Amino acid sequence: MDDRRMVKVSKYLSRHLRHQPDRIGITLDPGGWVEIDALLAAAEAHGFPISRAELDHAVAANDKRRFAVEGTRIRASQGHTVEVDLGLEAAVPPPYLYHGTVARSLEAIRTEGLRPMARHDVHLSVDRETATRVGARRGRPLVLTVDAGAMHRDGHVFRVSANGVWLTRSVPPEYLRLQQG
């Protein structure tokens, strides 16, 4: 599968496994899973046929490991805007985590901290490079350092998704520091 097709398949899977399953007539179970055969049939019925080989390649080759396959089922690893329970246990975070953003969001972040917005959780990275790439999707990136160790000591709960993204409900502003160059 060429790179352009893989990007299209990956975006299609993300849209329907994270945000709009009903748009193509699939139903996610409470853990976010759907039968692969049902997903492929729905995609074809809605004008975007995906072969099983293309799906397997999109899952395996995705650098962010956005999808998980378990037996005959598939789900998005995190980032849902529809109600799902990924069944992730609380985990002790590393001392610092990172969040990529852009300058136009800084004023609100300094006042309100990081909020999940339409998602269920705030997404945090273990390294500055990943946070920089995330922030760059919306413009010139800025990286915020999150004092995850202090948050954890103060009772905030963290979970880590199958693809290594750290999740928490919110990050109050007192735990944030703007990373300089």
From TrEMBL:
Gene3D superfamilies: 3.20.170.30, RNA 2'-phosphotransferase, Tpt1/KptA family, N-terminal domain. Keywords: NAD, Transferase. SUPFAM superfamilies: ADP-ribosylation (SSF56399). One of its GO terms (molecular function) is transferase activity. It holds the Pfam family PTS_2-RNA. Its EC number is 2.7.1.-. The keyword Hydrolase does not apply. Removes the 2'-phosphate from RNA via an intermediate in which the phosphate is ADP-ribosylated by NAD followed by a presumed transesterification to release the RNA and generate ADP-ribose 1''-2''-cyclic phosphate (APPR>P). May function as an ADP-ribosylase. Belongs to the KptA/TPT1 family. NCBIfam families: PRK00819.1-4. PANTHER family: PUTATIVE PHOSPHOTRANSFERASE (PTHR12684), TRNA 2'-PHOSPHOTRANSFERASE 1 (PTHR12684:SF2). This is Probable RNA 2'-phosphotransferase. It comes from Streptomyces fragilis.
